[in-house]
Amino acid sequence: MPRKKTKKEVVQILDLLSEIHPDAHCELVHSSPFELLIATILSAQCTDVRVNIVTEAMFKKYNTPDDFKNLSIEDIENMIKTCGLYKSKAKKIKETSIILSNKYEGEVPDSLEELVTLPGVGRKTAGVVLSNAFGVPAIAVDTHVFRVSNRIGIVKESTPEKTEFALMKAIPKDRWTNSHHLLIFHGRRICKARKPDCDSCNVTDYCNYYKTDIQNKK
Q: The whole model's pTM is what?
């Protein structure tokens, strides 16, 4: 049974991931906390590439809570249709915009507690906004972060939320945000869901998946 990684090993893994992904960053294009919030809501079960295509056109016309508050749900649906789950996302964007306009004077709150009260905003979305728009250390656990961190063995958890809290304990706080990006880039480029490219990976010496599933088969 693979043992849990020590804090020193976790830092060494992050250092190696930094070498292979020096460009790791938030790939959702935005120019304000509100734009990032909307883009992150749209990114659920959708690629950042597709979201950026949609928001590039949309944000030229509408980029504030007041703008979206005054749009019909059907108008929003038509603009975001190619992002998938568009009916649900349009409803959440409309409702969130109304709350931000009426309760927060059009500003996005910068606390986790307030963000997660908004429609369509869970811990992952809140973490993305806090870390990238406000510089608040956070580890947002999407499908890539969940898969890669558990595969390597940085943590061993059964849910995204448990993974988030375990990563917060395992990783130095000043590296939370960057670690989020590193794990996402590694998941997109190398440690893919169906067929991880272990030959191109530089953390195989630490990886539980590689040691138990790949080496044993060899």
A: 0.92
User: Among 103, 124, 156, 205, which one carries the catalytic annotation?
Assistant: 124
Name the H helices within the chain. Answer: 7-20, 33-42, 48-61, 65-69, 73-80, 86-103, 112-115, 123-133, 143-152, 160-170, 176-189, 208-209
Give me the residue spans of the domains in the chain.
Answer: 7-25+139-214, 33-133
Q: Which of 89, 103, 142, 192 is catalytic?
A: 142
Domain boundaries 7-25+139-214, corresponding CATH code: 1.10.1670.10
Q: Which fold has domain 33-133?
A: Endonuclease III; domain 1 (1.10.340)
| 211 is annotated as an active-site residue | no
Q: What is the mean pLDDT of each run of 10 residues along the chain (218 residues)?
A: 84 98 97 98 95 98 97 97 96 98 97 96 96 96 96 96 97 97 97 95 95 70
Reply yes or no on whether 124 is catalytic. Answer: yes
